[in-house]
Write a structure and sequence with these properties.
It contains 17 helices and 21 strands. By secondary structure, it is α/β, with parallel strands linked by helices.
């Protein structure tokens, strides 16, 4: 009796499948709203004698996607043979699916096999009345419509993106300009959090540490912050904890060039309108527009953060301990990084040595051993010497900095600009040559074989030319940015005039790399030399009058090491 009741309930149970896309929501298309679909389908289901209703709702998901959770859950129930319903009703077949292969398979094979009735209201389709020979055609047309819309949207995005209009919603820290939705303005509250993240990172904190600090301080994470402001960001999943930050969110904020005031379009692409997975684009295929909106983070600060990340300055020892010099020290002889260690007998003794010494990667003959406590004294002394130079000889220091940072760069930049101009002229010339050659081929002046051969030749040349133009443009942009940070570097140097202790932020803001020389024995004392390359200016000669204090240390029994400043880079 119980089984009979269950069967009876199942026969009177129908599944409503409701779906709406983000485009429907943006257009405020009430006819396709979930509320409208529910009202329409519920009424028709009752007219057909169904008393029990089960809903499956995919909100904000396209019909071409195979990652529709509720749709897949409904189909899985059917395929299991244990579905609690005997019929499915949809507003129209385009709500059901815009993938004709999958739609045809379900409608013609899966549903009939499991005795599932399909009703589509708009098309007047009811599988209880037998097969409809037009259904496969309708499914194909629904897919073609999706394909056509995808092409039109892509073309529109190409036009907008190449005109400098942001294609993506503003990142955390910005909001749409209420006077012009096509531009961004700073969101003061969120921008303060972004600046705090950058400041903490430059102070030596890692992304995980920053995330913990923000969580402890109960700062709303980006998802919940947007929702608290009533901002609809489709596709975002709700976190259970509104104040929980993870390191991935922090890393993303630290990587976004948009915080410099730039618009970057075409950062990702998809291979097909059916594949929703986005693939990272190469830089030459992106459209980058600089200084479009007000910057949250100064470009020089953003660049320093990227440099710190690229240099992996937080490489730990085997026990997980990290040092502020990690990733910053290089062997002057073989070019490999120096690795951070501690003495096994005395863990208070910490040191670096060359990773290329006695390794398969390199045959560096010496260890380039240097103690951390010795290194700290030396680098702090050199930074103090640099700040004295900047304060006592201000005009001269500015000229030296400008000379180091711009003289060579300007010469190279001018050469590269001329080279770029020639490349672009050749690119235009190839277009004209190809058009002329095509006309000659049509007129019979050039036979097909020769046209094909020359076309291949010009196509290969132009492809290589486009790649070289993109690479050279990127190099010019990097050199321009480097020149622009000179003033910032001078002000940064002055900031540390009274520094009494070395810290990681000081290293990140001032120093690009340090080359360590192998110590040499002179008059019974081992002399240790370093070449310090500062950000923006490289290695710099400081007047001998601004002397370095004597730094001497007993590094191990019977061995005295003294610092010997280099007067020339090398």
């Amino acid at each position: 009796m119980k089984q009979s009741d269950n069967r009876k309930n199942r026969e009177h149970t129908i599944a409503l499948y409701l779906r709406i896309t983000r485009e429907d929501t943006d257009k405020k298309d009430e006819s396709n709203s979930i509320t409208n679909q529910r009202k329409l389908l519920t009424g028709i289901a009752k007219e057909k004698g169904y008393t029990n209703i089960i809903e499956f709702v995919d909100d904000g998901i396209t019909g071409t996607s195979r990652d529709r959770n509720e749709f897949n859950r409904m189909v899985a129930a059917v395929e299991s043979g244990q579905s609690p319903f005997t019929a499915i009703i949809v507003k129209d077949l385009s709500r059901f699916a815009r993938d004709h292969i999958r739609a045809d398979m379900l409608i013609e094979e899966v549903f009939p096999f499991h005795d599932i009735r399909l009703i589509s209201v708009s098309e007047g389709l009811d599988s209880a009345n037998g097969e409809d020979e037009f259904t496969p055609f309708r499914n194909l047309m629904n897919e073609w419509y999706a394909r056509d819309i995808s092409k039109k949207r892509k073309l529109t995005n190409v036009v907008k993106g190449n005109a400098g209009e942001p294609l993506s919603p503003p990142p955390y820290g910005y909001t749409k300009n209420p006077d012009n939705p096509k531009s961004w303005v700073i969101d003061i509250e969120a921008a303060e959090v972004v600046r705090r993240i950058y400041d903490m990172y430059l102070s030596g904190k890692g992304s995980e540490q920053i995330a913990i600090a923000l969580t402890d301080d109960k700062i709303l994470n980006p998802t919940h912050y947007w929702r608290s402001k009533g901002v609809n960001r489709g596709g975002l999943k709700a976190d259970k904890e509104p104040y929980y930050w993870n390191s991935s969110a922090v890393k993303k904020i630290l990587s976004l060039q948009e915080y410099c005031g730039d618009v970057i379009n075409f950062k990702t692409y998809s291979k097909s309108f059916k594949l929703k997975k986005r693939i990272p684009n190469t830089e030459e295929n992106m459209a980058i527009f600089k200084d479009v909106h007000e910057a949250v983070i100064e470009r020089a600060t953003w660049t320093r953060v990227q440099d710190r990340h690229d240099n992996s300055r937080k490489r730990p020892t085997r026990d997980g301990e990290k040092n502020m010099f990690s990733g910053l020290l290089f062997c002057v002889d073989c070019g490999h990084r120096l690795n951070y260690h501690f003495n096994q007998a005395n863990h208070e003794i910490k040191y670096f040595n060359c990773s290329g010494n006695n390794s398969r990667r390199s045959d560096c003959p010496t260890t380039h051993y240097i103690r951390v406590d010795f290194l700290e004294q030396v680098v702090l002394g050199e930074i103090r010497r640099l700040t004295r130079y900047a304060s006592k000889h201000e005009a001269e220091f500015a000229r030296v900095v400008m000379g180091y940072s711009q003289q060579a760069d300007n010469t190279q930049r001018e050469r590269k600009i001329k080279e770029l101009s020639k490349m672009r002229s050749r690119d235009k010339e190839l277009d004209k040559l190809f058009n002329s050659m095509y006309e000659d081929n049509v007129a019979g002046k050039i036979d097909d074989e020769r046209f094909a051969r020359m076309s291949r030749q010009y196509t290969i040349e132009q492809k290589e030319l486009v790649e070289r133009i993109a690479a050279l443009s990127a190099e010019i942009d990097r050199q321009t940015e480097k020149a622009m940070t000179t003033d910032t570097f001078i002000s940064t140097v002055r900031k540390y005039t009274r520094a009494k202790k070395l810290n990681e932020r000081m290293l990140v803001e001032l120093i690009d790399r340090i080359e360590v020389h192998q110590s040499e024995k002179v008059d019974g004392v081992h002399q240790q030399k370093l070449t310090i390359y500062y950000n923006c200016i490289g290695a710099i000669d400081i007047p001998e009058a601004l002397t370095m204090p004597d730094i001497t240390m007993q590094t191990r029994r019977g061995v005295t090491v003294a610092y010997a400043p280099l007067q020339k880079a090398g």
